[in-house]
Write a structure and sequence with these properties.
Elements lengths: L5 E2 L2 H9 L3 E7 L4 H16 L3 E6 L4 H6 L7 E6 L2 E7 L4 H12 L1
Parallel strand pairs: 1-3, 2-3
Antiparallel strand pairs: 2-4, 4-5
């Protein structure tokens, strides 16, 4: 299947985390090299985990970045039923990324 990791705004984000399901959010930016390295890896993992996966551009959504205390990017947050379960920093290998996301979804 050809999954595109959808970039979302604050309104869509608030709507998604209210749902009784798990969401994986990657905070990113156009100018960020590690974010670009992580993009294809995140896309692959997003096809293999049982959660909706999205990305948020920190420059387009500075309020969300502050609200979630994003200090560096890329930062991935696994949110389950509206609560943060796990936070992953930096561009890490696919195997590690998938394992960390899955542990946050359990």
């Amino acid at each position: 299947k050809n999954v595109v990791v959808e970039s979302i705004n604050k309104a869509k984000f608030q709507e998604e985390i209210k749902k009784e399901k798990s969401v994986v959010i990657k905070f990113t930016a156009e100018w960020c090299s590690p974010c670009k390295q992580l993009a294809p890896v995140f896309k692959e993992v997003s096809e293999e985990v049982s959660a909706e996966c999205y990305e948020i551009d920190v420059d387009e959504e500075p309020e969300l970045s502050r609200q979630w205390n994003i200090m560096s990017i890329p930062t991935i947050i696994v949110i389950k039923q509206g609560k943060e379960k796990i936070r992953i920093y930096g561009a890490i290998p696919k195997k590690q990324l998938k394992e960390r996301i899955i542990s946050g979804l359990e």
